[in-house]
Amino acid sequence: MTGRRRTRTFLPAHHRPAKARVLSAGALAACASIAVGCGVVPGTTGGSGDDPITVMTWAPEGTKATNKPGMPAMALAYARWINSKGGINGRKLKVLTCNDHNDTVAAANCARRAVDENVVAVVGSYSQHARSFFSPLEAAGIPYLGGYGVTDDEFTSPLSYPVNGGQPALLAGLGQQLARNCGPVTLVRPDTIAGDELPVLLDSGLSAEGHSAAVDQRAAEDATEYSNHADQALRRVTADPTEEGCVVPALGDRTDTFMDSFRRAREAYPTVRTASVLGSVDQSVIDATGNAYEGSYVTGWYPASRDKRWKPMRAVIREEAFGDNRIDASDPGVQTTWVAYTVLKKAVESLGDGEVSSRTLRRTLDDGLKINTGGLTPTLSWSFDDLTAASGFPRLVNSDVSFQVVRKGQLVSARKGFVNVSKVLENTEAS
User: Fold this and answer.
1) Is the dihedral of CA 279, 282, 287, 290 positive or negative?
2) Cβ within 8 Å of residue 175, ≥6 positions away
3) Which residues contact 160 (CB under 8 A, 6 or more apart)?
4) pLDDT on residue 373
5) Where does the Leucine-binding protein domain lie (predicted)?
6) What tens digit of pLDDT does each residue of 25-65 get?
7) One domain, residues 200 and 267
8) Residue 18 lies in a domain
């Protein structure tokens, strides 16, 4: 991260109703689709005829903080698979990839490259630097379809089409899950702008169930060990011996590093439980760390990774990316990219033999196209009537989460079906 660290929540500075904000923001999308007066003609490389449908997927790779190499790798595998089937409506899918390096300038450069390459959409991507990449995309009218949901801008930009509830839904859902099972709660999270948003969201879920707020403990996002942080968190949650506390590490790729320190430190303290969100913990992390996560509570966006609803995705990985160790079917980034490309395919199919461009994609999505993702999410639609009333989240259409738990080394469902956290998010207020 660059620049001065600020405390931000997902609430905007003004307090107009969420749908009113979307309506005014719609003027931006309308402007972006008009060449005269707005200055940029949207991407049309996937127009009618035999032209390929060109899209981009970006994510950080090879950095000292959170990396998501599986997302662009999944996008390329998806393109190989769909093209082997004749493409979408007979047109080949061309996927460009970009490394945002967890850097503001690099993220903006990826967006500018997307504009220069006339992509019709940015699909299934991850970046913490939304304010850098959305400006070029919005100016060109390019939709951002199926972002990871790590920033507030993904739930406010009129050109964003999120497929999950992002960090807001995960943290609010985890708070609800922990409120019923934990005494004192300590959140260990990155000392970054994105990390500053996490405590408010976790506390919204805790308070909805009558639980006190979590202790907010900041930590370096790229540390190589967390011994002091582990001791500090353990002291806090074991202060009252009559209650079993919970420690919540939400450090992205560094969560397993924290757990290495935590596993050694916890032997000197009473029993505590851990909890986290998918993205910080997944089945591959659990497999690599023995029983460190046994009994941990985990909140995710989608069904557990072993659920049969992931069978089509696993088949594509097996056929088109066998041996590519960047792609982990249990990684929520890979899963999000799969869902996003599922949406793209169905949106393009809805256009028939017509033009495929950034403008036509936005129009079909905005007009209320209903997209079934095979039970991985609820039916998705971004029409005005389908937007939630959650304050500060005007582009949120999917606020479902899944409650999971680690049992015998496996991440399994803690309860049947999804839990909708829209009411919690509607009541989230700035702290």
Assistant:
1) positive
2) 201, 202, 203, 204, 205, 206, 207, 208, 209, 211, 214, 424
3) 134, 143, 144, 147, 153, 154, 395
4) 98
5) 62-373
6) 444 444 443 333 333 344 444 444 678 999 999 999 999 88
7) yes
8) no
Tell me, yes or no, whether 292 and 172 share the same domain: yes
Residue 181 is part of which domain span? 168-300
My answer on whether 183 and 159 are in the same domain is no
pTM to 2 decimals?
0.83
- What is the C-alpha to C-alpha distance for residues 3 and 193, in angstroms, rounded to an integer? 10
In the chain, the number of structural domains is 2
Say yes or no: 134 and 190 in one domain.
no
CA-to-CA dists, residue 424 to 163, 174, 219, 292, 402, angstroms: 19, 11, 27, 30, 15
**Is 7 part of a structural domain of the chain?**
no
Q: Measured between alpha carbons, how far is residue 282 from residues 113, 276, 299 in Å?
A: 32, 10, 10
The pair of three-digit structure tokens given for residue 170, joined into one six-digit string: 């995960």
Bridge-partner residues for 406, per DSSP? 411
For residue 300 the two structure tokens come to 């995710």
| Banded pLDDT at 96 (limits 50, 70, 90) | very high
Segment holding 404, helix H or strand E: strand 400-407
Give residue 49's pLDDT: 60
Q: Which of 5, 32, 15, 43 is nearest to 134 (CA)?
A: 32
CATH number of the domain encompassing residue 278: 3.40.50.2300
Which residue carries 């993904």 as its tokens?
154
